Amino acid sequence: AEVFNLSRLAGYRTGGTLHFIINNQIGFTTEPKDARSSQYCTDIAKMVDVPIFHVNGDDPLAMVMVTQLALDYRQAFGDDVVIDMYCYRRHGHNEVDEPGFTQPTLYRLIEQHPHISETLTKRLIADGDLTEIEAAKFSEQFQQSLDEILARVRKNEEEQKVAQQAERKSSMRTPFRPPYSFESATTAVTRENLEIVTRALTTIPEGFNVNPKIRRQLDDKRANFQKGEGLDWAMGEALAFGTLLQEGTPVRLSGQDVERGTFSHRHSVLYDVTNRTPYVPLANISPTQPRFCVHNSSLSEYAILGFDYGYSVDYPEMLCIWEAQFGDFVNGAQVIIDQFITSSESKWQITSGIVLLLPHGYEGQGPEHSSGRVERFLQACAENNIQVCNLTTPAQLFHALRRQMKRNFRKPLVIMTPKSLLRKKECVSKLTDFTEGKFQEILDDPVQPKSPKRLIFCSGKVYYDLHALRNDNNIRNTAILRVEQFYPLNTDLLQRILKNYTGFEKIVWCQEEPRNMGGWTFMAPILEQISGIKPVYAGRKASASPACGSSNVHKIEQDALVEHAFNA
Questions:
Q1: 30 φψ region: left (φ > 0), alpha (ψ -120 to 50), beta (else)
Q2: What distance separates the 2 farthest-apart alpha carbons in the chain?
Q3: CA 306 to chain centroid
Q4: Fewer Cβ atoms within 10 A, N terminus or C terminus of the chain?
């Protein structure tokens, strides 16, 4: 049903899909009467009014004719077609199943029913298209071909087993998996190139009537760029997109409300206030740039993330991004994450560079609008399969997005993006951070207090609360370090940073999430192993819900956990 719903939506059309149903009338032990409320399994296709062919699986000639007709229709009209091949399973669910336990009458009939090869052979002989001698010879040749293929496959399996064992002994790395590297690709960009993108972002075509509020935002962005400071999150993202487009990398952004941005921060598509004519600034940087695609999606996380994952696999040269309206909405796409994004490289050697933007952060908006469930991604991390980040500056986002396309390998990138930080005056970057910087998996304390007694590790938005409390109370014996990339964790960088601090007595992990969520259980053993000190937890108590439902209770909890980080 999801595929049919996407079939005619801009940004998700494929030019027609051939839906081929091997309708064997049974799903393990579930019969059709227990599986659907409609008469036909194809009734969902009626939502888009496409051709539906019901074909007898015992008539292969009719099957071939209908398949050719369906393909011709798809090519001629660019629309979906459905073929319902009505057939049966001779051995039930699989070769060792005993279907007679649950379908005794059906499988008594199937046992007596001739094989399709027999009925087709008799028909061809009766029609004069084949003789009995030719049929016997064909059957013998076919069996011989199968035997030869089986022998070849077994030989290849033995050779691969020997090669894989040698590979494991030499590197202990899963065969075919590209290695992960912390070596930074060049992601900094010249001021001249950034200025070209900024000009495109903030220039409105003559005669285009832009919303006055957006006009003020664009003017502020241009002014901040000229000053070389105050570049916010949306600007960091747009500069990443724009510079990649300058360099020949197409960009696709997909998800619910992504044009404007859930929090009215992005405005990648502007609409004339008089007639709603759209204008896309990032599509107008230069006449020779590749495509910038931005699409507000249907209200489905499961289907849209599945589509975009497939897009990223099929078109690895494009930066392909799916954004959840709120981080929690990724719950609706969990099947795609578990079955494909975190595991397809291990299962099938299929790599993807898809990016997930999950708005995350505790601002008292309740359990459905707080957490992107970072702990679920961390639990799925192994063998360098995905990258999980919780970033705190626009420049970090800029370099992370550019790094995604500049390295010689592809890994899915999961970013916990902010909400309140989108407009927080402290959450900005300088222009030099874009022209000279690079992505840093761990950010050292910019203050770097001398000989601190306490090191507080954190990730994401809570850093700004910790920083504010330290400043307000003039606390000088505590350093605050930010884990920007949870996984793969750059332990070498972490060790180098720790060497800058001598004599510290306590390590604290501070997080906004409840104790059974967030990064605590992932980071605690690593911090203890590297430092030799058992870390102390500062955060919300364990909870069945991701967050409380009261903004007043939220504030009390937030103040308490930040203070606890300095006093634990």
A1: beta
A2: 98
A3: 9
A4: N
Q: What is the pLDDT of residue 173?
A: 43
d(CA 135, CA 138): 5
Residue type, 217: Q
Distances (CA, A) of 39 to 32, 33, 483: 9, 9, 55
Strand partners, 271: 278
φ/ψ (deg, to 5) at 443:
-105, 120
Q: Under a CB-based contact definition with an 8 Å cutoff, are residues 246 and 289 in contact?
A: yes
Task: Locate 425 and state its tokens.
Answer: 């005056």
Distance CA 447, CA 568 (A): 22
- How, if at all, do strands 506-514 and 454-458 pair? parallel
| Start-to-end CA span in the chain (Å) | 53
The answer to whether 323 and 334 have CB atoms below 8 angstroms apart is no
| Sign of the C-alpha dihedral computed for residues 492, 496, 499 and 504 taken in this order | negative
Residues with Cβ within 8 Å of residue 324, at least 6 apart in sequence: 255, 256, 301, 330, 333, 356, 357, 358, 359, 372
The C-alpha atoms of residue 352 and residue 316 are separated, in whole angstroms, by: 7
Structure confidence at residue 171 (pLDDT)? 44
Over residues 428-457, the pLDDT tens digits come to 999 999 999 999 999 999 988 888 999 999
3-state secondary structure at position 536: strand
Task: State how far the Cα of 359 lies from the Cα of 417, in Å rounded to an integer.
Answer: 4
> Residue 324's Cα: distance from chain center in Å?
10
CA quadruple 455, 461, 465, 470: dihedral, nearest 10:
30
Taking residues 7-24, report their average pLDDT: 94
Residue among 545, 402, 395, 551 at smallest CA distance from 484 = 395
Helix (H, G, I), strand (E, B) or coil at 41: coil
Residues in contact with 220: Cβ distance below 8 Å, sequence separation at least 6, in sequence order: none
d(CA 520, CA 527): 10
Q: Left if phi > 0, otherwise alpha if psi is -120 to 50, otherwise beta: which for 261?
A: left
Reference 246, options 283, 204, 278; nearest CA is 283
Phi then psi for residue 304, to 5 deg, are -70, -45
pLDDT of residue 172: 40
Q: Which residue has the tokens 């801009």?
A: 10
Q: Are 89 and 99 in contact (CB under 8 A)?
A: yes
Count the helices and strands in the chain (H runs, E runs).
19, 17
* Distance, CA of 416 to CA of 460 (rounded, Å): 8
Buried b (16+ CB within 10 A) or exposed e, 40-49: bbbebbeeee
Q: Could you give the dihedral angle defined by the CA atoms of residues 197, 198, 203 and 204, in that order, rounded to the nearest 10 degrees?
A: 80
The span from the CA of 494 to the CA of 70, in Å, is 59
Residue ranges in 315-386 assigned as alpha helix (H) = 334-336, 344-348, 374-379
| Dihedral class, residue 530 (left if φ above 0, else alpha if ψ from -120 to 50, else beta) | alpha
Tally of residues, the chain: 568
